[in-house]
Task: structure prediction
Amino acid sequence: MKEEIEYGFWFWSHKLKGILYMLAQLSNYNLEETEMESIKQALTGTNDDLDMWAKHCFDGRQYHLDLQLAYDTEQKSEMIHIKLKTDFRLKQKLEVLDLFQCMFKSLEMENETKHYNNKDE
Result:
C-alpha cells in the first residue's frame, strides 16, 4: 500500500487555472479546458470554514490526486483554499509549488504597493 499525505495551501483565485495545470502535470494527468471550467463552477457556494468543499480528482498516469477546493471565508471569492491527498513522494514538489505561488503573491502585493505609492507623486 502506498503511503499518502495530506497537504494544503491558499492561493489567489485568479491563479486557479495555473495551479490546477501544475497539479495535473505533477500527476501526469491530461486536464481539459472543459474540466477546468467545471471545477471553477463547482467552487460556487463553497466555504472552507463551513466545511463546504468542491471535490475533484486527477487520476494521472503517474499519481492520483484527491482535491478539495473552497473559497476562503474571510477573503470570499478572492482566495481559494486547496487540500490535497496524494502519494507521499509528491510532498516536496507540492511544497515547492506552494512556495513558488507564494513568492508571486508577495511580488504582486509589493507591486501593488509601489503602484499605489507612486500615484501620490
